[in-house]
Structure formats: C-alpha cells, structure tokens
Amino acid sequence: MTEKLKKAVNGPINAANETPKTTAARNYLFEATVAAMAHRPARRVEAILNARSDTGIKIEGRKIWVECKRVTTEHALERNLRKACSQLQDTFNAEIGSGHRGIIAMDVSKILNPKGELLVAKDDTELKRGLVRLLQDFSDKHSNLWQRIYAEKSRKIIGTVFRLSCLATSEVRKMSVQCSQWAVIPRADATAADVQLQERLVEALSQDL
Q: pTM above the 0.70 mark?
C-alpha cells in the first residue's frame, strides 16, 4: 500500500490533462482507494493488503481477488476486461483453495465525464439520482460485452464493480463536493451467494468513511 501511495502522488494535477503515458499515478490511487474503502472490519469486510492481485477483499472469511482498471475510452473496455480476467486467472492458479472468487473493479469516470466537468444538481437527491442514471445507462449499453467475455472465463470470476467519481455541487448546499457512485454487473450465471458477495462489496465501498 505504501509503495502504491508513493506512485500515486505523481501525474498531472487535473485528470482531464492525463495522457496514456501519465495515467499510472491515478491508476495506483484507484487500487489504494478500493482497498481503503472496502476495509470495514466492523462489518466483517476486510482488505487483504498483501494480495497477489491489485488488492483483495475478505468478506466473512471468503477471499475475493480484485483487479483494478481505470478505463478512459469505450474502445478500451474489452481490452482491459480481458486483461483483468487473465490476471485473475493467474491468481487463481497460484492460490490454494476452491472457494476463492475474482472481481474486476473498474473506474469509468473519464468515459462518462472526459473533461472532468462539474455536475450540477438541485439538491443531494437529484445529484445521487443523476449519478445512478449515468452508471445504469453505461451498464445497460455494455452488458452484452461483459456477459460474452464472462462466458469464456472461469466461473470464479463473478462480476465487475464500477465507479463514477466526479466533482459536483447542489444548489441547496452551494458548495462543491467530491462524489463517488458504485454499481455492479454480476455474471449472468453467478450463484445467489456470489451475487450477494458483490452486493456486500458495493455496500462497503459506498459507505462514508
């Protein structure tokens, strides 16, 4: 975690100024963010900081290996998803135990808000509704891609969680806030238990620190 944070302090100040050669810092920061946000020991959800994958999450004793990807363009979605699946398979091959699961955590903020524009809403309710709608539309648009690739991969890979992060303001508050919204696409043939694991993870990621 310390090494990731050291790498995360580099890169351009404004995310809109990122280039393919300067994304490493925010990529590492996203990995650290997933681990930190998911770590809720009181809820029996804990980060595995020495994970072989980008990070790992233990939910009530079950280990979930997580590969994190920040994707900046829609045409890069399939490439990143396939790479994450291959990385998870390498982890499965190295880890002992049949109960392990894999999840891809994907930040799609730059796809949905490429210029890093301020999202303006009337109040907090409208703001949250807008973020949810953006992620839902994205999920609906690309669901077939995900399911097609999942069908080719190990059933231990149980789905993808998405994050949309942006600066926003509500007219009621009259102040800017950093917002994050999380969503999940389980694989179509995921078991009820595996779907529940993903819902628990998104719940942990969505809680205020």
A: yes
175 φ, ψ (degrees, to nearest 5): -155, 155
Amino acid letter at 187? R
Place of tokens 């043939």: 189
Burial grade of 41 (CB within 10 A; 0-12, 13-18, 19 or more): exposed
* 202: its two tokens: 């998104």
Determine the Cα–Cα distance for residues 120 and 174; give it in Å rounded to an integer. 10
Closest CA to 196 of 88, 31, 59, 98: 59
| Contact indicator for 125, 60 with CB cutoff of 8 Å | no
Q: Which two tokens stand for residue 30?
A: 């996203």
Identify whether the C-beta of residue 111 lies closer than 8 Å to the C-beta of residue 138.
Answer: yes
Res 84: pLDDT = 96
Q: Which residues contact 190 (CB under 8 A, 6 or more apart)?
A: 158, 159, 198
| Selection from 117, 186, 184 nearest residue 157 by Cα | 186
Average pLDDT over residues 138-154: 94
